[in-house]
Design brief:
2 domains, alpha+beta, Nucleoside Triphosphate Pyrophosphohydrolase, ten-stranded mixed beta sheet, Arc Repressor Mutant, subunit A, 12 strands
Length: 277
């Protein structure tokens, strides 16, 4: 019998346990302005995600989410996610939220690898540089659900990717679903499932949290904010209903739009952002 934990650890043999690796993968979602053909019209919003083309096997030349292996001796999962974000996008100090842990036995052909995924949210108009030239923004040009199959179409101006993921209800009391990838031959690993589950998380949380303001500039018009809600929810919102949703979340400023071809609108800011002036 051991007299202390120190004595126990001296004899402890960790080799009796199977080894596995852990990665942190980031679904980086952005909102930005579409290019206007008529300067007199308001900006339209679009939602995009960042993907990286793999240069090595497995899944060489397929697209995947930014990710990397955790340093087990020096990093927490969040440390790893922030390091990956910095190396892939040159971004720091943005909103990151843990999504799910993906642990399918055969999700990686190399070995047993468990991925803890994160959602990162950013106003893409603030992004000025991407370090990794294999990283590209893909606009979400289609997002729909039919017969419990979520279809997402992604386009970066050159490549077009179609993702289809089936949802199976696991627990009706909590609306818990199992996600199953369907013939997604252009996306590596199970990142198609990560993308769908992450977008669904965002669409759910926008209804009961203030998460959307992580994707907004410091100052914005109410029309811009409404467009962001609409592009995430994939539906038009009636102006009166939308104003009721956000009336306690924003406050008006004494600033107005500039350099536009129509009557300038008043600018607002997030009410609870202490750094706003």
């Amino acid at each position: 019998m051991y007299k202390s934990e120190e004595d126990f650890l001296k004899d402890y043999d960790s080799s009796i346990y199977e080894k596995l690796s852990i990665t942190a993968d980031i679904l980086l979602i952005s909102i930005s302005n579409e290019e206007k053909t008529d300067y007199r019209k308001n900006n339209q919003k679009k939602m995009s995600i960042l993907l990286v083309k793999r240069e090595e096997y497995p899944y060489k030349d397929r697209w995947c989410l930014p990710g990397g292996f955790i340093d087990p001796n020096n990093e927490t999962l969040e440390d790893c996610a922030n390091r990956v974000l910095k190396s892939e996008t040159n971004l720091e100090n943005i909103y990151l939220e843990q999504l799910y842990t993906f642990d399918s036995i055969n999700r990686d052909p190399r070995m047993r690898i468990i991925s803890t995924s994160y959602i990162g949210l950013i106003d893409k108009n603030k992004v000025t540089n991407i370090i990794n030239d294999k990283a590209k923004w893909f606009d979400i040009t289609k997002l729909e659900e039919k017969d419990n199959v979520v279809s997402i179409e992604l386009n970066n101006g050159v490549d077009n990717i179609i993702i289809k993921v089936k949802k199976e209800l696991v627990d009706k009391t909590t609306s818990k679903y199992k996600y199953i990838g369907l013939d997604n031959n252009e996306v590596a690993f199970d990142h198609d499932i990560v993308i769908v589950s992450g977008i669904e998380r965002l669409r759910n949380k926008i209804n009961y949290t203030d998460i959307v303001f992580n994707m907004m500039p410091k100052y914005f018009t109410l029309k811009e904010l409404q467009q962001v809600y609409e592009v995430i929810l994939c539906k038009k919102l009636l102006d009166p209903a939308f104003r009721r949703i956000i009336k306690d979340k924003v406050e008006e400023t004494d600033k107005y739009e500039t350099n536009i071809g129509h009557r300038p609108s008043r600018l607002y800011k997030y009410k609870y952002n202490d750094s706003s002036n």
